[in-house]
Design goal:
- Two copies of one chain form a homodimer.
- By secondary structure, chain A is of the alpha/beta class.
- Chain A has helices at about 5-20, 25-40, 50-65, 70-95, 100-110, 120-125, 125-135, 145-150, 165-175, 195-200, 225-235, 240-250, 265-270, and strands spanning about 140, 155-160, 180-185, 210, 240, 255-260, 280.
- In chain A, α5 runs antiparallel to α9.
- The radius of gyration of chain A is 18 Å and the shape is globular.
- At the A-B interface, α1 and α2 of A face α1 and α2 of B.
């Protein structure tokens, strides 16, 4: 998915919010914004939003001198999600259709996204937001097809999104019967999960945690490690969580299921669906790998 | 009031929305955004938001080739407000305190502000939004001081804000007993009222409509005409409507009363008040002109 004009003011807001999480002064914020605009002017308008996001958040880290601006918010999000973990497990156990319930929970966890405004409020009162998502009907529901793809595969490549959301992913992975390789980012970017965030959520107990090798807030194949690309190219089924993975992989021919909550009007427009929709979607470029 | 970092993404959103009102393609929108970023990088960060807004919206007009991008939305806003006019008059007539009611209505009209997102929705269902503002208590209430200042003055300089809001201003002017000079912008900028917009609202029947000589979305004194400055400097009482006039005049020594609804978080922060507040505030730099 290419970058839309609305992404530009959004990147500037993201940069501002990131710089504030590390206590940048107003002068520093303004200086950063100027650097971000210079960066935006240099970048090609044809690339995907996470490609620009990668450059912008690298700039944020360079200008603030903080390697992982969302370090504390990520740890806090995971903590809050872990507090719900027993309740989430019980929900799935008691559900009529445990797999669909687990898919829904994995999508509900996708609200923990600090690229969006007001996410701290959501993390502070996580349960009501989760409940809201659980009550919502799917806007696109390919859960059955996902279940079938999993039943005929030997393993699944699971492209993670954010810290805290990882705990909800753990619930889904516990309800998948084949081995899971859980792909986190190669370095900090916004609140995307890196290996330590996945460990804090306990993912390493049930899946192999591997890195994409990239610090783009999505899966930007040209920036990923050869090891990851090897896994990606041989995977017979891929679960891709969140908006960033949709933005970078929606045009790629691969056996992907996208699981996300649409939080941004630009993605809503691109998918021709409403903001707030919950989605379990088999890629339009899906194919069955032998 | 100086420009805050949050103003930068907001200017870009404003430019985008303005270009869409005249049907710019996505390519044109991107091209405009690049021009706006170049402009923002050239401008001094110490100036007021309307000074940057002036430059940005001049850029929008130059790039789109449309002199008055909000021409139709302004006419529509005025039409919708005029449809309420008899009801507004009746409200004031039947009020226990007609003057305070008229001040409240003038502030309620300030919701018609296309520098903010989603204003078309508000104009489409104007009455509920007006009622909401009427039910709200003042956050700053210097109505009594305003009434007294008007009672000891020979005339009032009324700095207008937006088209449509003009109809609500007309109600207030009808309840002021001294002659009013109604100051509109010297040229189109966002949906700020120019002379024709004031005429459409019928202001010319009850006040002298004059121009500030400037196309800044506020009252940027250094950009105003000598004629306006002469009036401004001799005025014994000035009513300044809306956020743009607050942003440009809050630090100026003059006998000003600011009437506005706070719609933007940056102004809320500057005034140390909440977004949504309704304000009738005597300037902190107020003085009585002999």
């Amino acid at each position: 998915m290419r970058t839309y004009p609305d992404c530009y003011p959004c990147f500037m807001r993201q940069a501002l919010e990131a710089s504030r999480t590390v206590g940048a002064t107003q002068e520093e914020q303004l200086h950063l914004l100027r650097k971000v605009m210079q960066q935006l002017l240099r970048l090609d308008t044809d690339c995907t939003p996470p490609e620009i996001g990668q450059a912008v958040h690298r700039m944020v880290r360079a200008q603030t001198g903080v390697d992982d601006p969302y370090f504390q918010l990520k740890a806090y999000s995971t903590e809050r999600a872990l507090a719900l973990y027993p309740r989430l497990q019980r929900m799935v156990r008691e559900a009529k259709d445990p797999f669909t319930c687990a898919v829904r929970l994995a999508i509900a966890g996708n609200i923990i996204d600090f690229a969006q405004a007001n996410t701290t409020d959501k993390v502070n009162s996580l349960w009501p937001y989760v409940e809201e998502t659980l009550r919502q009907p799917f806007t696109v529901d390919h859960t059955q097809a996902l279940s079938e793809a999993l039943s005929t595969s030997r393993e699944v490549l699971f492209l993670a999104d954010n810290a805290g959301e990882t705990v909800f992913d753990r619930i889904l992975i516990e309800n998948i019967e084949i081995p899971t390789r859980y792909v986190v980012k190669g370095g900090p970017t916004i609140n995307d999960a890196v290996a330590d965030d996945a460990r804090q959520a306990g993912i390493h107990r049930i899946a192999e945690v591997v890195s994409s090798g990239s610090d783009a807030p999505g899966t930007l194949l040209k920036d990923c490690s050869p090891e990851f690309l090897h896994e990606f190219r041989k995977a017979s089924v891929i679960i891709a969580k969140g908006q960033g993975n949709y933005e970078t992989l929606s045009d790629i021919r691969a056996p992907i299921f996208f699981l996300l909550k649409i939080k941004c009007p630009v993605i809503a427009k691109d998918m021709r669906l409403g903001t707030g929709s919950i989605i379990c979607k088999r890629s339009e470029h899906y194919f069955t790998r032998p």
